[in-house]
Amino acid sequence: MPAAPPAVAPTRPAPIQLSKPPVTVAVTPAGTATPRxxxxxxxxxxxxxxxxxxxxxxxxxxTTGVTGGGQTTGTIGSAGAREVTWRLRLPAQSTTTLxxxxxxxxxxxxxxxPTCVYGSDGTRPYDCTTATWTGPAAAVxxxxxxAAPAWRRPPVLLAALAALLVVTGGALWWxxxxxxxxSGVRPGGPAPADAGIPPVVGGATGPAARGTLHPRPATPRxxxxxxxxxxxxxxxxxxxxLAGVVGAAAWTATQRVAAIDTAKQPTSGAWLGSSVTGxxxxxxxxxxxxxxxxxxxxxxxxxxxxxxxxxxxxxIGVRNLxxxxxxxxxxxxxxxxxxxxxxxxxxxxxxVANLGRDVFAQPVAAGSRVxxxxxxxxxxxxxxKQLELRSGVFSAGVRxxxx
Length: 403
Known about the structure:
It is a single chain. By secondary structure, this protein is an alpha+beta fold. The protein has three domains: 119 residues, Immunoglobulin-like (Sandwich), CATH 2.60.40.1510; 64 residues; 126 residues, Immunoglobulin-like. 16% of the residues lie in helices and 31% in strands. The chain has a six-stranded mixed sheet with strand order 12-13-21-20-17-18, with no helix packed on it. Strands 5-6-3-9-10 form a five-stranded antiparallel sheet, with no helix packed on it. Helix 1 runs antiparallel to helix 2.
């Protein structure tokens, strides 16, 4: 008999790990009265590298100063969005310093300006970072957690159910007690003192008027019957308890179905965490990943499947916060239009933008960070209003305002 072939363990795709890029970028906000940033671009390699540096112009701000030959332009396909762009030739083992200044920020509050350095094509990111300038009387903007309405919170619902049961039980008990008081003397109670004595005849008084008393046989005393609650009270309490149990079970099932439904936007009723909303450039954490959207730009292109569509490219940083490898799926990453409709990530176009690498087929290594372009294909001229990013179907995920 031929020997059985040795068992071969199923192969798993290697996790994605971001290797140290040849070009890195660091941004430092200045401690001035108006937003100013210092950008340092470093080429750690041994050859010259051509790069494109892009810094997002804060919403409502005006560029007042740019060094290094940078130009302020509008972001392609994004309404009102602008960025400062530099095209640089970085010598080997060199560091280039750039500076930007802005004014006219609304309210003089905190200003976040994400910055990325790309390859010569302007789409493949080498490195990205973000920095927040804080005014004298401003605080760093925090991500907003979308809380559920009060009537949908479990403690409130349980308290309301308990109050309803107490009120119902009290009303039924009061009605039962009232009926007992109306029923008169309890059966088997003590007889009156003159029970069994004949009435007085002729108005005589005293013992003689009563005649001769003869002993009477003792009458067996009827035992006191124990009263039980009426049937309507028992049925009412049972109905109230059953209604509470059924209501709690229905609410729990509805919340779980809403969490599993992939066509519904995440809410605090999802399985894990609460939905978090923030602007471009702000790290937003959910159950497993920390997402940061650094840039969003839209244009017109042709998909690999030969369908015409408008492609929007988002530069996204994904950090695995867990001690285990984590996979994610393209169908859970969505771009929402102003009308409420949405499209999932175009996995074919995303693979092309990542030089043929399927970023959704490989898990993200524990504790690591990856930086990649994510492509959405839209029909029409409206730019996306918001991105929804999730590590899994049971995660509430994050939302990023990109318009």
